[in-house]
Amino acid sequence: MTPHRDVPERRRAREGDHMRTRILITVVATAALAAMAIAGATAEEAPRTGTFNTRAVALCYGRSDAFRKRIEAMRAEHEQAMEAGDSTRVAELEQWGPALQDTLHRQVFGDAPIWNIIDLLEDDLPAIAERAGVDAIVVPIHGRPGNGLVDITRAMVEPFDPDEQTLAMMEDLMGTEPVEME
């Protein structure tokens, strides 16, 4: 996984990265579907498109070592800012914690986008697609598996090394509808 960058001045750059990732995923999926249509491919020859449950991916990320390390790093930075008397940075970091918790809560239980988590998986996506036997990955699941759509949720969460309890929670979560949030 790529280390997470959470420096406020890089927020705009991350938003541009998110947009590029979204565009790339859309272009790849569109190209695969267009190629299928042009070639007159049958269902057996159709490109396989991987889809996944974004809420499950957010849950596994929130319970991962990568997330814990991120929290620990921010806590250490908060402590350093306090020792240095950097009240501006202390205030930023004190706002960051509750904001992160709210975002993750909306991603797991609601339908908030998970582009920040997808960015962490960017380097893993080609290997995930290969292991899952799909030609493209699109987000989120907009259809049912079948007709070229393959649910690759399990493959998408593997980089976060979820334990059995997390996987059980993920299965339960996937059986529920997102909660509508303001």
Query: Which stretches are poorly predicted, pLDDT < 50 over at least 5 residues?
Result: 2-11
Q: In this structure, how is the largest beta sheet organized?
A: 3 strands, parallel
Query: Whole-Å distance between the termini?
Result: 31 Å
- Which sequence of strands runs across the widest sheet? 2-1-3
- Given helix and strand content, the structural type is mainly alpha
So what's the overall shape?
Answer: elongated
Summarize model confidence as the mean pLDDT. Answer: 82
Helix content, binned percent: 55-70%
Query: Per DSSP, what share of the residues sits in E-state strands of 2 or more residues?
Result: under 5%
Number of strands: 3
Integer-rounded radius of gyration: 19 Å
Order of helices and strands: HEHHHHHEEHH
If helices are DSSP runs of H or I spanning 4 or more residues, what is the number of helices?
8
Textual characterization of the structure:
The protein has 182 residues and is mainly alpha-helical. 62% of the residues lie in helices and 4% in strands. It is built from eight helices and three strands. The chain has helices at residues 11-39, 54-62, 65-84, 87-109, 115-121, 125-132, 153-157, 164-174; strands at residues 49-51, 136-137, 149-151. The protein has a three-stranded parallel beta sheet, sandwiched between helices. α2 packs across α4, α2 runs antiparallel to α8 (164-174) and α3 packs antiparallel against α4. The longest helix is centred in the first third of the chain and has 29 residues, at 11-39. Residues 2-11 have low confidence and may be disordered.
